[in-house]
């Protein structure tokens, strides 16, 4: 199986994964080399997961991406899957690993993995980081069997709506609601968002929403000071305290096609996120990041509960900057 980027799963990887499961080793590293997913290293480990995190992190650095599969002693027959994409890695490498993750999971079998994590800071791959992840997941209220069934029905309805919707006349293939293509693993990654964390989402080569990067953020002012992606349109989820904010930016100089694709995908993405339990205090739309009004993050303001209508796709500006962009 391959992605639209041409990445394929090497048969050697399938055999290495089977051997890894059979042997009960601690960790398996997977790399992308020569447009193929290949096994790069195995750590046999000890009887203690906490102790083995030091061994696991020693094989990584702050510049190279990697997929890491870790045996989880606390859950039978389940392994931790980590998509490690450090901030200092090359942009091309980031996008390659982000867009290939789902292919790898499907090829190996998603039933083997829980949780599925996106990590971009090496220090998070540690016993301390693992404890924080477990604490965060335990704080979420699990759905009952009845609620899970209802959620599946809702998701199927959304997919049906997305697939039956007529294609727009202006741009074939590009303007349909790409927000419907949300994988379960992506939803899980987003639900792991912690306070003072910024998650940037982009539309990948296979027209699916993918995580471009995660970064820490201490205060809203940083959003206007280069924290947001400024080379193309993007969606962002940021958490301050207990409040989630959704930010859509369309920077100056963005390609016309990109503008149309992202603008037409925003509503579908928001609808899908809200159907999966995400509640945003504010939904913010701007052109360039420096147009964000910091007053939007004032806790004293009324919480925004309504999803923007399709007619709200126009960008809002906080101060005059000459003629509006067309």
Automatic annotation (TrEMBL):
Domain of life: Eukaryota
Residue ranges of the region described as Disordered: 297-326
Keyword Repeat: yes
Subcellular location: Cytoplasm, Cytoskeleton
Major subcellular location class: cytoplasm
Keywords carried by this UniProt record: Actin-binding, Cytoplasm, Cytoskeleton, Repeat
Domain ADF-H positions: 5-135
GO biological process, one term: actin filament depolymerization
Record bears the keyword Repeat: yes
GO MF entries: actin filament binding; actin monomer binding
Pfam families: Cofilin_ADF
CC terms in the record's Gene Ontology section: actin filament; cytoplasm
Subunit text: Interacts with G-actin; ADP-actin form.
Family: Belongs to the actin-binding proteins ADF family. Twinfilin subfamily.
Name the record gives this protein: ADF-H domain-containing protein
